[in-house]
């Protein structure tokens, strides 16, 4: 009887450890799958992607790598999810502060993030960046 119980425990352990669990969430897969390209980069509803504009360096391709590194326009750095994958944090040595943004939409065909930033001279800046898969 002890041999049967031991065999049953070993079989259960084998079953548990042999199953490959997919630890990547659907949002992780959607974000890291394509190369995203900027569609619109807006500050307070106005285009801010032109030369000398606030979001000029986010213009172009964005790639979120599975190892949490990435390229974000002309920036290179790291990214992470926050608040149960409802926000994204982008860090780079080239940014004065990490960019924390709400994920407004993440589908196979669209990535939209929003954030607000307050500057003493300019007041509150409402930022919306929209990307499409390349």
Proportion of residues in extended strands: 35-45%
Number of domains: 1
Round the mean pLDDT to the nearest integer and report it. 87
Q: Which strands sit side by side, in order, in the main sheet?
A: 1-3-4-5-6-7-8-9
Write the layout of secondary structure elements.
Elements: H1 2-18, H2 26-32, E1 36-43, E2 46-47, E3 61-64, E4 69-72, E5 75-82, E6 87-91, E7 99-106, E8 111-119, E9 123-133
Antiparallel strand pairs: 1-2, 1-3, 1-9, 3-4, 4-5, 5-6, 6-7, 7-8, 8-9
Describe the protein in words:
The protein is built from 2 helices and 9 strands. The protein has an 8-stranded antiparallel barrel. The longest helix is centred in the N-terminal third of the chain and has 17 residues, at 2-18. By secondary structure, the protein is α+β, with helices and mostly antiparallel strands. A hairpin with a 4-residue loop joins strand 3 and strand 4.
Q: Key terms for this structure?
A:
single chain; 134 residues; alpha+beta; Lipocalin; 8-stranded antiparallel beta barrel; 2 helices; globular; disordered N terminus
Q: In a few lines, what is going on in this structure?
A:
The protein is α+β, with helices and mostly antiparallel strands and 134 residues long. It is built from two helices and nine strands.
């Amino acid at each position: 009887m002890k041999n049967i119980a031991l065999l049953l425990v070993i079989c259960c352990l084998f079953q548990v450890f042999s199953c490959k669990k997919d630890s990547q969430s659907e949002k992780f897969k959607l974000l890291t799958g394509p190369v995203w390209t900027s569609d619109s980069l807006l500050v307070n509803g106005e285009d801010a992607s032109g030369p000398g504009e606030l979001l000029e360096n986010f213009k172009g391709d964005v790639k979120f790598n599975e190892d949490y590194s990435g390229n974000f326009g002309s920036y290179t750095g790291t990214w992470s999810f926050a608040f149960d994958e409802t926000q994204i944090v982008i860090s780079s040595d080239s940014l004065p502060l990490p960019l924390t943004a709400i994920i407004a939409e993440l589908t196979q065909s669209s990535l939209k993030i929003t954030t607000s930033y307050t500057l003493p001279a300019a007041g509150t800046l409402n930022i919306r960046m929209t990307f499409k898969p390349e």
